[in-house]
Amino acid sequence: MAADGTLVVAEARPAGHGRASTLQRFARRRSTIAFLMTLPLIAIIGGLVAYPAAYAMYLSTLNRRMTANIGLGNFEILLENDTFRAVIWQSCIFAIGAVVAKALIGFWLAHMLHAIPAKGQRKWRGMLLVPWVIPPALSTLGWWWMFDPSYSSINWILNIFAVPSVPWLGEPWWARISVIMVNVWYGSPFFMIMYLAALKSVPDQLYEAAAIDGATGWQGLRYVTLPMMQNIISITVLFSLIVTFANYDIVRVLTNGGPRDMTQVFASYAFQVGILSGNLPRGAAVSLFMFPVLAIFAYFILRGINRRNKEQM
Amino acid sequence: MSATAIPASYTGRKLGSLRSERRWALWVAYASLIIACIIFLAPPFYMLVTSLKSSAEISNLSGNPWLVKAPTLENYIELINNPLFRGFFWNSIIITVCVVIISMVVSVLAAFALARMKFWGSQMLATGVFLTYLVPDTLLFIPLYQIVGGLGLLNSIWGLVLIYPTLTVPFCTWIMIGYFASIPKELDEAALIDGANWMQMLTKIFIPVALPGIIAATIFAFTVSWAAFVYPTAFVTTPDQMPLTIGVVSQLIRGDTFAWGQIMAGALMAALPPVVVYAFLMDYYIAGLTAGATKG
Q: Which pTM does this prediction carry?
């Protein structure tokens, strides 16, 4: 990508006598400068991301008091634990349910936003992005209050339509749905804005050509929009899967894992085991369970982005 | 970003049969958007309504909970006069300012080097930066707890200042690489011929030209460090060192009788800075949001 300016200059004047050598020295020094400029970044990535990741792997092989190495003991204990198996299930239900709902709602809203006249779009977009802007830990407090067993304002509305009150955070399945609902509320605007950006990049001529060929609106969506947006859709979905899979804020504020640990996801369970119960090695093991899944998603995101870059070049 | 795409409705205008179809589509669009807006804005609206109620009105079960009969600012006034809450705000401000400055300096320097000066491993490093962005905070908070503890920075805002850049720097660097790479090479060649050194090239050409990108990255760093939740929850337990997010969540909730009005007022005040930034700089905010996938 970066065909560097200096090299071009140096090659353009091979015959410049004293000049060439200074330029060469400059070029040699350039890599030193570049290295110095990236040094803080390397320090942050190496010291605060790569090293902790390696340290987590080491930590997860220790016993509770960190005095002896027990190999994969923590992982074995966890896998035999019923609560932890429930955590695996709940994390998958939570991530997949929330991401599918977010993707569909985001896709729908992006289309609706794209369908109205351009000058009104800004205003609507501004309002629809508000859930994404409020820090999730704080907006979840509002949801928590809306789900309050005796004062629930959502139940109040349901009661108007003669629907019985729902025990939002009291029953395991309702609690699971509530947690997903809040995540969908928070994350849909992100999908909407990504899809809208992608929709705007589809040239109008393609739709005109399709219309001339007699394509219906549905066919236009199926054969023009989806292929054109395929890459962005997959990048956004994979990215959101990572973030949702590793989500902590919403579960912590809304249910704190309850009722009966039925809404614990990896992150909140790792927190409970590692920090609150003080078993750091086992907590590290819990979060490391996320690692393979995240690595697979990350691989596909990277592939999607590289492919996209090649298309643009 | 500019909303230039003309809806396909103009092409269908002439055809009579398509006209009613278009109008119908428009109605569906507006209806969906109105419903979505109501659902999306209901929680913040309800928080606002609750924050304006007195405790007596909140506990009164008769009547519509979505309306406020006797609005009062007592919850807000009480919070503003609460030194603990002011401390949360102050901590959040200190942390965010430090983190934004650190992230921007680190990421602009690194992005400049990665976008313009090819050196051994630069491509690998750029990929590594992106991968780091994909590492969620919940994966690393336990080893970081040990590391921060080893440095003696648990229960201190400086521990958070040290750790937060891991959340902001990778993405900021990534979008700055995209912006810098889009600057035409002729500009730096011209600068080099005029005898500029690398630092002058960065400050006189790259930073001014890529200013929209820098604003977008700054907004990103600001919102992320303001909203960070996992790290302060794990590393800070003494109230006087807490930033707003965990402060509001853990300290305003006491015992069995929740002061809901105050909790909502606190949450709203804590959410105000990012919302204000968003309201005034929406285009940059969205540019930063979509840059991850549409640029780079």
A: 0.87
